[in-house]
Amino acid sequence: MVKLKNDRFLKALLRQPVDKTPVWVMRQAGRYLPEYRKLKTKVRDFMTLCATPELACEITIQPLRRFDLDAAIIFSDILTIPDAMGLGLHFIPDKGPRFDKYICSAADIKALSVPDIEDSLSYVMDAIRMARREIDGKVPLIGFSGSPWTLACYMVEEGSSKYFSKVKGMMFEAPEQMHMLLNLLTKSVTAYLNAQIIAGAQVIMLFDTWGGILSSEKYQQFSLYYMHQIVQSLNRKFEGHIVPVILFTKGGGQWLEVMANTGVDAIGLDWTTNLSLARHLIGDKVALQGNMDPCVLYASSDRIRQEVSSVLASFGKAKTGHIFNLGHGIHPTIDPEKVRLLVNLVHCLSEPFHQ
Fold first, then answer.
1. What is the CB-side half-sphere exposure of residue 247 using CA atoms within 13 A?
2. Tens digit of each residue's pLDDT (9 = 90 or more) over 148-160
3. pTM for this one?
4. Average pLDDT for residues 58-67, to the nearest whole number?
5. What is the CATH number of the domain that holds 101?
6. Per the domain annotation, does 1 fall within a domain?
7. Do the beta carbons of residue 142 and residue 74 sit within 8 Å?
């Protein structure tokens, strides 16, 4: 086991003292980097990048070569699980992901099964193993999955949606069908994430991108309940090390206290949630990750500095418990030099907060 040269991120997740606030960026591996775009022109489609371990490993490493980040995240896609369940994932340029088949009925759900992870998703595990070797202990590697509810949204809706009428329609009209689908996805996500841990992922993150479209009652019934099951079923200790878990519900700032009760180590926050209030509500129960608006990176250097200072001050003086990140994924048209500035500013400006 290679000893970590930079364990600041892991320490902050476990609420242990650090010398400065760790920082990484959601979607840091990918589309905004020119080296990624150059690599993408050499392959047939996006899925080729995900399903070729050597390419996924290379993309994972690319931001580490540019920036002094405190973590890497494996390059993949949350829809690999529905693809492995037989829905047939493909990507249409400028339109995004599409499936060959969608879930419309109880019969469609009964036709699904938990995938054999080491068979149909072995390329993800191979990419994780390769990335761990390439990173060589420089920083920890994050593995991830979409939440069952978020995956269900993509599996039921046909393409992007403004209203989520189909998935919500199933939830309201045939809740037993929705629970059947979510139960199956929960088993699949659990197996997938445990396989990632065995392959070498040192941190796990659950992306609940569409949890925020639900009412409070329905969020707890159809999203949080299943994420709680996953968290409780993960192999949280592997080869003598704790594997921290981060839960991120976009638009979920009103549910911080119930999210903290799932047993996760950290909660990711989008930019609509006040860090100071979040810390007040849940105290030191979990670490907090976030939460600068990604659009700040379109602004001037001085403005970025102001916003970084504001986020750090909002969390307040503490030797641990905060991981700096954007409130959602980095936009594809962001200048990489702005990311370099962000990372350097976080490290520089956060030191006084840890003394």
1. 29
2. 999 999 999 977 7
3. 0.97
4. 98
5. 3.20.20.210
6. no
7. yes
